[in-house]
Amino acid sequence: MLSSDKGPHGTNASGFGVAADEAGQTYEVTKLSEEHGFLLYQDRRPEVGTLLRIFPNHSCAVMAQSDGFVLRHANGHSEDHVVSARGNFI
């Protein structure tokens, strides 16, 4: 799930986030359209069906639409968290 919001002002973030494959190849998410994301690639295009991990530039609206999320640390440890404010917009 991605948001069309590019993130906090002043971060100079480009695009909408980064996608990465299992080998660590990264692709900038440059455009969003309904159910589609468009990736910029340099050397190799991901094959159809490749699983990609998405790292959004901005996730506030994304988090509000989710029941929970997982934080994964560099050491491999992970933590499950519940989004207790889901759907509670002011």
Domain module count: 2
Number of DSSP-assigned strands: 6
Order of helices and strands: EEEEHEE
Largest sheet entry: 4 strands, antiparallel
* Uncertain ranges: none
Proportion of residues in β-strands: 25-35%
Radius of gyration: 15 Å
Helix content: under 10%
> Structural class, judged by helices and strands?
mainly beta
Q: Biggest sheet: strands side by side, in what order?
A: 3-2-1-4
What would the principal axes of the Cα set say about the shape? globular
Mean pLDDT metric: 80
- C-alpha termini separation: 22 Å
- Number of helical stretches of at least 4 residues: 1
Pfam families: D-ser_dehydrat
InterPro entries: D-ser_dehydrat-like_dom (IPR026956), D-ser_dehydrat-like_sf (IPR042208)
Explain this structure:
The protein has one helix spanning 60-63, and strands spanning 17-20, 26-33, 36-40, 53-56, 68-72, 78-82. It has 2 domains: 1-58, no CATH class; 59-90, no CATH class. A hairpin with a 5-residue loop joins strand 5 and strand 6 (78-82). The radius of gyration is 15 Å and the shape is globular. The chain is mainly beta. The two termini are 22 Å apart. The strands form 2 sheets. It has a 4-stranded antiparallel beta sheet with strand order 3-2-1-4, with no helix packed on it. The protein has a two-stranded antiparallel ribbon with strand order 5-6. The chain has 1 helix and 6 strands.
